[in-house]
Amino acid sequence: MCGIVGYVGPRPALDVVVEGLRRLEYRGYDSAGVAIVGDNELQIAKKAGRIENLDKLIASESATRAITGNTGMGHTRWATHGAPNDRNAHPHLDASGRIAVVHNGIIENFSALRAELESAGVEFVSETDTETVAHLVAAHLTAHGGSLADATRAVARRLQGAFTLVLLDAEQPEVVVAARRNSPLVLGVGYGETFLGSDVAAFIEYTREAVELGQDQVVEIRRDGYTITGFDGTPVTGRPFHIDWDLAAAEKGGFDYFMLKEMQEQPGAVRDTLLGHLVDGQIMLDEQRLDRQDLREIDKVFIVACGTAYHAGLIGKQAIEHWTRIPVEVEMASEFRYRDPVLSRQTLVVAISQSGETADTLEAVRHAREQNAKVLSICNTNGAQIPRESDAVLYTHAGPEIGVAATKTFVAQVAAVELVGLALAQARGTKYGDEITTEFDALCAVPDQISAALAAMEPVRELAREIASAKAILFIGRHVGYPVALEGALKLKELAYMHAEGFAAGELKHGPIALIEDGLPVVVVMPSPTGRPVLHQKMLSNVAEIKARGARTIVIAEAGDAAAREHADHLIEVPALPTLMSPFVTTIPLQVLAAEIALARGCDIDKPRNLAKSVTVE
Ligand code: AGP
């Protein structure tokens, strides 16, 4: 949510900033704006809607005011306070036009601060919480002088809530200053130029050297480097890291949409996530601040996550319980901390988050740690807040995922959570070493099977075009097929704006079967006839029941499942895999179905309406 770019260096700042905003588009936004300092003057352009609208505005005004300068910042806004219109778009200025601010997050005490400023005669031009910061910083500089960084620190100390703030001062044109609490921001270090970004995609074109910023820190960037302090002015050293992917990974590579490219990258995402995690017969995590004894003592696991990551958690539950015999509960992170879950030192909370920024998951992690539970996070973003606040980390190596719909990160998360299951089984001795190796080897065979599934998707695309005008589609599954059904329904909702629901097939008779009517497409995720014969039989009965009531059945079944063929109006075969690994392939046709239906309905599958890639507000 919200994208932020900052730049100081020799290049025209407008180009760097607008290009950076484009690379952050995937985060979700509804207006965009830039501020550039040139000749000790702030030049602002901002516009509701897509970045193209901002481009047009800048082009249309170029004859009368060219935006030039080598210091600047940009922002894509996902509205929280105030409608997504031109006036509320960022940057915001103080009354004199000296200070410009962009902001990601929510300033919770902004009403009180606004009232204080208004009683001192300040007139607000927007409805945003952000504008208060511009006025407060300007007031501080007028009253106390000093640097922009000093004023930012003083104001940041007064703010409650979550924020990344980036500021420009027309009178200090060689610096950009940022403050960070609970909202993402990273620093990019080039030769004679320095960058800020909500994530590294903002500056990957120019440098692969980055620095993590911590909580409650202020950073001043200059051409020759940067200075980081706490809000109290104490110097701080940031943690440098090298970005292990490049510009090509963040581009479409010949596909019309990032999502289509990312779906094809799924075999690599799983392969890279598994790579190097079995060493001398031992499952290794990436960062381990827990010792073996801690893992041995775990008697309860909670998995907390949102959306697609939650579905990966539901699959992980089956694997962890099966391999370790430890009870596992999977909770939506947004519910977890508000219901007072029973946690202890022997509880392991596994937080799954692609971005590592999701506010609900981050707060669940904090709640767990406050209650002395251990936290292990699974994350796709090096240096993000959730892994930094965890006791152990396992990174998914899916590379950047730009499409809002999670695809390759989902399969990578399933691989990672299954690795966690094996690590726990190993620590607790519920599996012998050779059994761990066998399961790990089975996981390593998955990428080839995903490739095989992807290669056979043409009939699914054709089917998608046939059913694209359906009113609704239902998805049913059992055991690990149930979270796959939920994921299929989520993909369809978010991409095609179509009513879709996922159900545990056994629940149909308890209500949802009333939804079945003539011609309603129902996608069935079939259990394996050999791996789960009893469930397979039960599912055949469920399919017969809905077919008898007019449903058009689209059955996803293991290759060679003859019984499934008999019940299917459309049969989609996927490679056979052990039950706990079957979601890696059963999920593929559901992704393809959702993407193709969405495209047939004219939807932008990379940027679905109303959605943000990472949800950084609760
Ligand atoms: C799914 O396609 C969505 N992008 C969404 O459900 C996502 O999985 C969820 O918001 C969690 O994000 P995270 O993995 O970054 O925490």
Describe the structure.
The chain is of the alpha/beta class. The chain has three domains: 3-248, Glutamine Phosphoribosylpyrophosphate, subunit 1, domain 1 (4-Layer Sandwich); 258-444, 3-Layer(aba) Sandwich (Rossmann fold), CATH 3.40.50; 454-600, Rossmann fold (3-Layer(aba) Sandwich). The chain is 36% helix and 24% strand. The chain is built from 20 helices and 27 strands. It has an eight-stranded antiparallel sheet with strand order 3-2-4-1-10-9-11-14, with helices on one face. A hairpin with a 2-residue loop joins strand 2 and strand 3 (41-48). The radius of gyration is 26 Å and the shape is globular. It starts with a strand and ends in an 18-residue tail after the last helix. The mean pLDDT is 93. It binds 2-deoxy-2-amino glucitol-6-phosphate (AGP).
**Structural class per helix/strand content?**
alpha/beta
Biggest sheet record: 8 strands, antiparallel
Indicate the low-confidence ranges by residue numbers: none
The CATH homology group name of the largest domain: Aminohydrolase, N-terminal nucleophile (Ntn) domain
Average pLDDT value? 93
Number of strands: 27
Biggest β-sheet: strands ordered side by side in the sheet: 3-2-4-1-10-9-11-14
- Count, helices: 20
Number of domains: 3
Class of the largest domain in CATH? Alpha Beta
Strand content: 15-25%
Helix residue percentage: 25-40%
- Catalogue the ligands: 2-deoxy-2-amino glucitol-6-phosphate
The quaternary structure here is single chain
Radius of gyration: 26 Å
